[in-house]
């Protein structure tokens, strides 16, 4: 009887231990089932993502964009007018700068033309006067020559011969001056007709002078 009483606490302790062991095992089993379910769920989701085949984002380029619609004639005219307006807006400073230069050039050309006209008029008058003088000189030289050679002893008249030689020299010089004046008149006439100054400036003959009043 005493032995049965001593064993009762041991049996109770053993039963309690078995009961606790069962609870721990049940809890462990439940934890393992939950972990297995989580792993299975993660694997299932991974397979679903692979099946869905998510594509990477694509970078758009100019080739992927639709072509721009062709511009209408009205749009083209508007663009052209806008460009002309911009050019016109930029042009005034240059045009304004060019106007004074053009005006100065025109004024200079007018002055040169007027100077050429005046020079041509003077050259023509000088030419006419020189030709008249040459005619007088030639007639006088002829009279002096006739008078000289009409003398019986003209060969001894040294003064008369020297006078004839001087008159001949003057006639030759006057003829050369007349040729120079003719070239000057032609040059000035061409410059007046063209409206520009002559290419070269010919000097008038040394004895060119205003016509006598």
| Total DSSP helices | 3
Computed CA radius of gyration, to the nearest angstrom = 65 Å
Helix content: over 70%
Poorly predicted segments: 1-5, 198-202
Mean pLDDT: 73
Q: Would you tell me the structural class of the helices and strands? A: mainly alpha
Number of strands: 0
Description of the molecule:
By secondary structure, this protein is an all-alpha fold. The chain has a domain at 108-213. It has 3 helices and no strands. Residues 1-5 and 198-202 have low confidence and may be disordered.
Summarize the structure.
The chain is mainly α and 213 residues long.
Q: Secondary structure elements and their pairing?
A:
Elements: H1 2-52, H2 73-149, H3 158-194
Helix pairs in contact: 2-3
Keywords:
213 residues; mainly alpha; 3 helices; 77% helix; rod-shaped; disordered N terminus
């Amino acid at each position: 009887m005493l032995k049965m009483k001593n064993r009762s606490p041991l049996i109770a302790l053993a039963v309690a231990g078995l009961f606790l062991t069962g609870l721990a095992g049940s809890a462990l089993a439940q934890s393992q089932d939950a972990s297995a379910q989580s792993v299975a769920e993660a694997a299932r989701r991974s397979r679903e993502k692979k099946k869905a085949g998510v594509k990477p984002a694509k970078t758009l380029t100019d080739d992927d964009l639709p072509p721009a619609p062709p511009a209408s004639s009205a749009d083209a005219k508007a663009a052209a007018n806008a460009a002309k307006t911009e050019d016109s807006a930029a042009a005034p400073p240059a045009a304004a700068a060019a106007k004074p230069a053009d005006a100065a050039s025109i004024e200079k050309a007018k002055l040169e033309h007027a100077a050429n006209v005046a020079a041509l008029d003077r050259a023509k008058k000088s030419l006419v006067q020189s030709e008249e003088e040459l005619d007088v000189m030639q007639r006088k030289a002829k009279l002096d020559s006739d008078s000289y050679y009409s003398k019986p002893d003209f060969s001894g008249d040294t003064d008369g011969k020297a006078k004839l030689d001087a008159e001949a020299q003057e006639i030759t010089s006057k003829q050369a001056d007349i040729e120079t004046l003719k070239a000057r008149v032609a040059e000035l006439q061409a410059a007046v007709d063209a409206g520009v100054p002559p290419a070269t400036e010919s000097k008038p003959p040394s004895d060119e002078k205003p016509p006598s009043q």
